[in-house]
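Appendix B, example 12.
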Amino acid sequence: MNISKIDLNLLIYLDVLLREQNVTRAAQQLGITQPAMSNGLKRLRELLSDPVLVRTSDGMLPTEKARKLQPTVRRILLDLEEALNPSGAFHAGSSERVFRIMASDYAASTLLPRLLSRLQELAPKVTLDIMTPSDVTFHDVEEGKIDMAINRFDDLPLSFHQKVIWSDSFVCLTHKDNPVIHNWGLDAYCQSQHVWVSKTGFGVGLGMDPSDVAKLGWVDEKLQNIGKQREIRVFTRNYHVAIQLALAKKMMVTVPRRATLNYRTNDDIVILEPPFELPEIKLDMIWSPLLHHDASHIWLRRLINEVSNEPDNQPLS
């Protein structure tokens, strides 16, 4: 292949097509028509002597050759962009960039409202595409399809860049009419009916077994270590569903302190310190090395760091 005959636009088309795996969405990302994008795919197939994308029961998927090319193409384009724009300038005020962020419901309700407020002020044309942990995989982040993932993670690939956004402590939340609050302590906690909530990492979760303490997480492991066990009646993967259920049925829920921010004006809520020691929860931001030097990505990471350090307006309990 004579590299002098390669149209640079085809590399851009290939990069976007492999990220979106959809001709229509790729065309929208590039601001061109679908026929123009289809023609670009046709030219790529001729250039590479490969289908690039093939239709399957799961939609359009890249071929093996295309998957191998993807990180190289992405790196070439980022290096070229950096070389042509050595100042690393990102014009936030006029940018129409779409940032795709995977965020747990905890991160989405505590961090992202602050971020959105700053974006409306500094980058009013920027769009956020918020995804849940079940929407993406580590592979999506690694390939740069997702700009970043914000959650707490038990294990991470070594190739990822990572930053701790903040640490948070746990609190117990219940309805003011729950009688256990009048004799609060470890025995009262264990005798309460609990809503369990947890979701880490990526992918679709599996059903919970109440007897499998090893898989129930920090709270139940700590209780087991001191010879105690709580009575779990509901399992959920959403912090705010858990809080609403606990309030409605006068049950107990143990959640990160910041998750209670949106409820602090509710007079029916009582927030209590756990009657036993629990570790802090860390909220992490991870991203692909392919995006590490991208000017717009650097700008967003710095902004997220700024808003994460803003003080809360009111005490949580």
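The chain has a mean pLDDT of 86. Residues 98-167+282-308 form a domain with the D-Maltodextrin-Binding Protein; domain 2 fold (CATH 3.40.190.10).
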